[in-house]
Each structure stands twice: as C-alpha cells, then as structure tokens.
C-alpha cells in the first residue's frame, strides 16, 4: 500500500533524554525508524531499551522529564498535548508488550478487547472488524471464537490477541517490546513470522525491542544497540553486525554463542543417577464427592541416567513436565511409579498411597547432600530476610557434624570466593546483588555441601547474554575442577548445545529423543526435535 | 526506615501508655466521687476536657479507661495471634491433609458465631468481667489470624527459596519458622493493628451490654457508648473518648508501619 514511500523516515528521535529524580535514564538517544522497515533495539536489562519505547509513545512514568524531539510523520510528539497523543497511540502507533498474561483484561472476551481499541479510535462496525482482525493474526473465528476469554487461550494465542489489539486500527508503526521472551521457541518462531507477514501486508514499520540478538537477526533492517541509557551503535543491521560495530556489540555477539573449550571437558566415569520408569502425576479435572480424581501424568514413564562428571541436557517447552521432573528428582514431590536411584541406592520410589501428598521427607540426608539444585529465578530463590552467609550456609544443615559458627563463616567465605563473589558479601542481603551475582550465590549454595550432581533448572534463562556467558564459564570451570555432573534443564536449545555432552528431548512427559548432543543437533531423528532446532533464531555465521 | 511514621506513632502510643501507667498512682480527680452539681461541664481550666453526666472528670476517666482498653485489646490480639499464627502455619505446612481440613473447619465454626454470642456464652458459664471479655474477643481473633497466615503461607510454600530450603533437608517446622513466618511479618503487623482497634470497639460493645469491665471501672468504649444519648447536649462527652480511640489506633498503625519497614531488609536502608 504505502510502497512508494517505504524507506522514508517515519519516527526519528533526536537528542532524546529522560531524567527521573535527577538521574539520567536516557542520554542523547538518536535513531530513525524507516517506514515499512524493521528496527531492532538490542540491549541488556537496564540498558534503557524499554524506556526508549515508552518515551516515543510519551508513556513515561510520572515525574520523568523528557528532552529532545520525537518526530513522527511530520509532527513532534514531544510537543503534542495529551489529547492529540491519545489519537496517535493505538491509532497511528501500536504497542505489544512482553507478558501476554498481564497485557489482557481477564474479565473481557478477546473480541471485546480488540473492539475496544477500534471503538476508541472512532471506527464503526467494531465487532465485525474485531473478528476480522483476529482472523488476520491467525486466530480463525471458527476454532478460536472472539467470545473466548484470555484464560482459555495458550500463551502464543494470547500474544496474537495482543498483536490484534495493536494492529486493529492499522497503525503505521508497531512497537513490540520483548514480544516473544515469555514464549517457547516454536511459538516464538510463529509470532515472529506473524509480525513479518503483517509488516509485508500493511507496510507497517516495526520496532522490535529484545535482549536477544538472534531474535532480531533475521528480522531487522536496522539495528540500535543500547547500553546504560545510551546508543552505542546504530545503523543498518549488516553494518552494525559486521566488523564496524563497537567493542560492546562484538562482546554481545560473542557472549550469545559462548562455548567452553572442548579440551577442558571431563570424561564420564561411573553411574550416578538412574531414573527408571518414572511417573509423576497430579490430580486434575473436577473433584467428585466419592472416588479419586483423575490424575494428569506430567511425567509419563521416564528413564535415563547421568554418569559421574558428565553434563546432560534436558530440553522441552513449557508444560512438557520439566519442572515436575526436577521436583521428583529432588524428592520434593511424591512419585506414582518407578524409581530414582543414586549411586545404586534408592533415593525415591513410588509410595503406595496415591491420595494427598505426604509431607515426610523420603530422601536421606547423605543422599540429599549429593544432589543439589540451582533454580531459574535469581530473585525468588532466596529468602529476602536472611543475610547471604545464612543463605549460602543453609545446606550445611545436611552434614552429620555441623561446623561451628567460625568454621561455617570460613566455608561460606571460601565458597563465595570460588564463584567470584567477594567474601565481604556475607553480611549483605540478597536484594543488594544483581541477577548474575545472585545466580553465582545460588551456585555457591548448591556447592557448599560438595554434591556430585547439580540440577540446573533453567539456571541461566533469566540472565542477560554476557552474564549468562560468565555463569556458564563458571559452571564449566567448576565441572572441570570438582568433577561435577550437571543435569541441565532448559527450554533454550542454544544454551544446551554448547555445554552438554548428551541431550534428552522431552515432550508431554516423555522423552522423544536422546543421544550425544552433537549427534542430535547434526541429525535430529524426531520431527519434534527438528521443529525445535529449526525454531531457534540464529545469528548470521552460526550453524 | 520511615522516621516520618515512627516518631508521631511512637509519641501517640507513648502518650497513651504513660497516661495509663500514671493513672495507677494518680489522676487529677477521684472518679468514684460523683459531683452532680458539676455535671456535663464543657472543657475549662479546672476540668480540661469537661465532665460527664455524673460530674466525673473526663481526663481522669480517659486515663483509667486507657488501662482497661489497652489491656483488653492487647491481650485479645495476643491470644488471637498466639493461637491463630501457629495454627495457620500448621495448616499451610500440612496443606491438603486432614490436619489442614480440621483446623480450617474449626475456624469456620468460630467464625459462624458472632463475638457477642461467644461472650454471652462465656459469661453465662464463668460470670461477667473484664477477663472473660478479653477471652471472648481473643477467641474471635484466632480464626482471623489463622486464615490470614494460612493463605499467605500457602503461596510462600511454592516459592523457590522454600524449595531450596527443602533441598537443604530442612523439615516443615523449621521452614515454617525460619522462612515462612519472617516473610509474613509485615502482614501480621498490619493485621494486628487492625485487630487492636477492633478489640477496643468490641470491648465497648461488650461493656455496653454489661459483659465487659463492670462499672464503675471506665473504659473508652463504654464512655463512648454511655455518651451517645448526650451528644446533642454535651458533644464533648462523646468527642474525647472517640478522639482517644482514634489517637491510640492511629499511633499503633503508624508504629506498625515503621515496624514493618524495619523488619524488611529491602526497605530498611531505603529513605
């Protein structure tokens, strides 16, 4: 439609600055979004990339001072009043947020929510048009009627509804802030494809904000790299991505494809963890007065083994049973069938009662010591009310002879130093640390009792790429020095590819493929594995 | 930590506590002597806050009343929290089992009876008096705390730091006291201040129907209750006990806020 003016500057920020409470959040931001083209804004958390989007829409938090000019289609958005801005927001510029769970109103049907955005901008016949818009984003009205509520949809479908709301009024510009971060890789690929199609059909300009360089790699025409509230690189994607980029951009590129030196890997020796015919279920469906509820088998007959010193990856998308499996391995939940053995000793076995979960701890202390865990969320996995010393020392509880206070402090200090945290951190609280530091502290907590297997439950998924590379390097170093075995549970194939020896692919509670990591990536046998690998966005120059 | 709420809160609470303590040894006037000639006087130099319908000095009444009201409300909150919190923690730790079910259904049972009915029951068995009023109000507080604690603790039990503690081999009792309870502290402080103010009012209600502190022992609640027919003639008789209750509750709320911030290391070092 607007093919003749594709490439002309649609949105251009010049010398934009944002100050909140005397602190500079954004400094001297300048970039241009060309009509019908895609601009990728990449940066790590806290780099100000989301703030840029909010500034462009003039949706800054209260008390923020904006300077500079925001040219959009011949107007300066920085000078417009609120009424004029409201017509532009949603009408001329649409926005898609990261979290499709919270971006939708749970009490309204999806059709109504799309219609609302149309009504706001004075369109007639809103319901018919809302239905048509939902069709456009791939929610066919006969399979997903507009009368559905958000909770009846999957994460990917919800994100499609959010996109439908954003594009309902046929905006010229769509700003998508981490639109796929909360989604599985296959869903992510589908959403990115949808954005591409919409862009082609409507001649839409797209701003794609992400922490993941690979996501923008095959989407963006132009690229902006941000750090600490400043633009460090801006220009056409190829130019920035090729050698002309700054040192920071190059470090981002290296970090996203970090791999350990293969010579440092240890060879496996001796069986450690053996899982046989594991079934874990939980009650699902309506409760009847008499008779047991039907059980949903989240983990459905799983068998695998981990040898001493080896690193095993377990990948699967959300809902495949990964978390349930983690809990079962750690003895945090009852199992229905099968056994988990550790060094030949039975750790957990099916209990006879299938009703109500028993709270008794079935795992002996000596076994608990051998298998520790690092959880995904570097914010939620520590009690905010305890000091680091107490947090890291917690597993020492498992020792037969607990160390004295002085000895305990010594051990915690040494362990913290081992993971690259100054021992002085012991007296501080967890909220004083960054995400990467917290994950190091979590590793210190797992290793303080000298386990032989560490379960990494999405342990690096919440980290920025450069921090992730550091944490992975630390894990590789620890594996080499201590002879640790890892069970690396992740939804992210690109992480698992570089740091594991063997790979298990899990789907709907079952393992669909297993083998040496290199072999699985080179020649995936199962269609699901192939789909997973194909969906992973890659940087140019990577296989 | 928030000094803004600490200082006025502490001052108000201190004022009430000092007034109550001093009243044990000294009050401006003897409240057991009725001077009908001086009845319903407005505030003046001799009677700072005026007199009531029997000519008793309101300052003196408030000072002694502070004692009754504070003791009743604080002990009642103590009983409620002292029984309710452990029960709530236990129910959450044994969630989904018969223990949980039994505790929560007992709670429902207590909830089903209004405090007044329980008080009448207790009074019928053990006789009227301040102690029985305290017990009645206290029992009524138990399910409030138990439900609050169970609900909040249930969500804490699914948090990863609790899972981490379980991986560290800690038992449910230990986790309840080391991890769950400290993270409920802010909620409990807020609920305790609310229950405290409700306690003062509940005592007033019980005193009004003759089940609380027996006359002539004054309490703020009964002063308020007795003055309601006089509001149009002598508003000060109702105003000052009302202000005393507001002041005490406000002071405790402010102090509670400051305490909550101080208990939370994330807020402790904030401005």
Describe this structure in words.
The complex is a heterodimer of chains A (543) and B (271). Chain A is of the alpha/beta class and 543 residues long. Helix content of chain A is 33%, strand content 25%. In chain A, helix 15 links the parallel strand 17 and strand 18 (485-490). The longest helix of chain A has 18 residues, at 185-202. Residues 352-360 of chain A have low confidence and may be disordered. Chain B is mainly α. Chain B has a single domain, classed as MetI-like fold (Orthogonal Bundle), CATH 1.10.3720.10. Chain B contains 10 helices and no strands. Chain B has helices spanning 3-25, 58-93, 98-112, 115-126, 130-157, 160-167, 172-208, 220-226, 235-263, 265-268. Chain A binds chain B through residues 327, 330, 332, 356-357, 359, 361, 363, 365, 368, 372-373, 375-377, 380-385, 394-395, 397-398, 429, 431, 445, and chain B through 93-94, 96-97, 159-161, 163-172, 178-179, 182-183, 263-266.
Keywords for this entry:
heterodimer; A: Rossmann fold; Rossmann fold; 2 domains; six-stranded mixed β-sheet; 20 strands; 33% helix; globular; B: 271 residues; mainly alpha; elongated
- Name the helix and strand elements of chain B from N-terminus to C-terminus, one letter apiece: HHHHHHHHHH
Which runs of chain B of at least 5 residues are low in confidence (pLDDT < 50)?
none
**Assembly level:** heterodimer
CATH architecture descriptor of chain B: Orthogonal Bundle
Major sheet of chain A: size, sense and barrel closure?
6 strands, mixed
Total discrete domains of chain B: 1
What is the topology, as strand order, of the major beta sheet of chain A? 6-7-8-3-9-10
> Any idea what the shape of chain A is?
globular
CATH topology of the largest domain in chain A: Rossmann fold
| Estimated radius of gyration of chain B | 22 Å
Say what the CATH topology of chain B is. MetI-like fold
Identify the biggest protein-protein contact and residues per side. Answer: A-B, 28 and 25 residues
Which range does the strand content of chain A fall in? 25-35%
């Amino acid at each position: 439609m607007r093919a003749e003016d594709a490439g002309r500057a649609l949105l251009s920020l010049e010398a934009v600055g944002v100050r909140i409470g005397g602190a500079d959040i954004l400094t001297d931001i300048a970039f241009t979004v060309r009509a019908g083209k895609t601009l990728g804004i990449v940066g790590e958390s806290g780099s100000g990339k989301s703030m840029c989007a909010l500034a462009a829409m003039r949706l800054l938090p209260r008390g923020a001072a904006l300077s500079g000019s925001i040219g959009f289609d011949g107007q300066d958005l920085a000078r417009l009043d609120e009424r004029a801005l409201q017509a532009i927001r949603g009408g001329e510029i649409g926005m898609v947020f990261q979290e499709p769970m919270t971006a939708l109103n749970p009490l309204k049907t999806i059709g109504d929510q799309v219609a609302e955005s149309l009504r706001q901008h004075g369109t007639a016949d809103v319901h018919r048009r809302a239905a048509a818009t939902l069709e456009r984003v791939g929610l066919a009205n006969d399979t997903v009627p507009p009368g559905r509520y958000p909770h009846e949809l999957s994460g990917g479908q919800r994100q499609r509804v959010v996109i439908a709301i954003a594009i309902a009024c046929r905006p010229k510009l769509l700003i998508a802030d981490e639109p796929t971060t909360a989604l599985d890789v296959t869903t992510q690929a589908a959403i990115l494809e949808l954005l591409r199609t919409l862009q082609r059909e409507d001649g839409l300009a797209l701003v794609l904000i992400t922490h993941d360089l690979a996501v923008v790699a095959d989407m963006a025409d132009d690229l902006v790299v941000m750090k600490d509230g400043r633009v460090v690189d801006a220009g056409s994607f190829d130019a920035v991505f090729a050698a002309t980029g700054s040192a920071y951009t190059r470090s981002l590129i290296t970090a996203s494809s970090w791999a350990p030196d293969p010579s440092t890997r240890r060879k496996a020796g001796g069986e450690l963890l053996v899982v046989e015919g594991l079934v874990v279920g939980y009650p699902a469906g309506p409760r009847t007065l008499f008779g047991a509820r039907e059980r949903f088998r989240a983990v459905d007959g799983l068998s695998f083994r981990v040898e001493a010193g080896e690193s095993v990856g377990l990948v699967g998308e959300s809902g495949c049973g990964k978390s349930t499996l983690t809990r079962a391995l750690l003895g945090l939940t009852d199992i229905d069938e099968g056994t988990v053995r550790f060094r030949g000793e039975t750790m957990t076995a099916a209990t006879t009662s299938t009703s109500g979960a028993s709270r008794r701890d079935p795992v002996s202390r000596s076994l608990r010591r051998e298998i520790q865990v690092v959880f995904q969320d570097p914010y939620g996995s520590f009690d905010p009310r305890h000091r680091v010393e107490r947090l890291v020392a917690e597993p020492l509880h498992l020792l037969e002879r607990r160390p004295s206070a002085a000895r305990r402090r010594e051990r915690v200090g040494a362990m913290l130093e081992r993971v690259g945290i100054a021992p002085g951190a012991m007296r501080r609280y967890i909220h004083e640390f960054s995400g990467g530091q917290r994950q190091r502290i979590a590793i210190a907590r797992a290793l303080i009792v000298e386990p032989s297997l560490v379960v990494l439950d999405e342990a690096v998924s919440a980290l920025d790429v450069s921090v992730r590379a550091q944490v992975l390097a630390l894990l590789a170093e620890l594996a080499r020095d201590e002879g640790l075995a890892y069970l690396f549970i992740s939804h992210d194939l690109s992480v698992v590819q570089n740091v594991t020896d063997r790979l298990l692919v899990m789907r709907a509670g079952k393992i669909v493929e297993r083998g040496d990591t290199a072999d699985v990536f080179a020649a995936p046998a199962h269609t699901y594995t192939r789909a997973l690998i194909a969906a992973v966005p890659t940087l140019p120059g990577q296989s | 930590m928030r000094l803004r709420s600490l200082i006025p809160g502490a001052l108000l609470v201190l004022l009430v506590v000092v007034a109550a303590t001093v009243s044990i040894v000294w009050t401006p006037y003897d409240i057991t002597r009725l001077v009908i000639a001086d009845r319903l006087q407005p505030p003046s130099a001799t009677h700072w806050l005026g007199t009531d319908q029997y000519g008793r000095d309101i300052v003196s009444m408030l000072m002694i009343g502070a004692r009754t009201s504070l003791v009743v409300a604080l002990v009642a909150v103590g009983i409620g929290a002292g029984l309710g919190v452990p029960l709530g923690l236990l129910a959450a730790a044994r969630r989904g089992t018969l223990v949980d079910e039994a505790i929560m259904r007992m709670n429902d049972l207590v909830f089903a009876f209004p405090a007044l009915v329980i008080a009448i029951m207790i009074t019928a068995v053990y006789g009227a008096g301040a102690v029985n009023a305290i017990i009645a109000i206290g029992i009524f507080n138990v399910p409030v705390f138990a439900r609050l604690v169970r609900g909040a603790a249930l969500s804490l039990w699914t948090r990863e730091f609790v899972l981490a503690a379980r991986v560290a081999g800690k038992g449910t009792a230990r986790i309840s006291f080391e991890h769950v309870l400290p993270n409920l502290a802010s909620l409990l402080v807020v609920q305790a201040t609310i229950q405290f103010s409700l306690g003062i009012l509940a005592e007033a209600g019980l005193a009004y129907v003759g089940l609380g502190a027996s006359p002539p022992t004054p309490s703020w609640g009964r002063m308020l209750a007795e003055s309601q027919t006089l509001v149009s003639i002598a508003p000060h008789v109702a105003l000052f006990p009302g202000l005393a209750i507001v002041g005490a509750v406000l002071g405790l709320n402010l102090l509670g806020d400051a305490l909550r911030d101080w208990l939370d290391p994330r807020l402790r070092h904030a401005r």
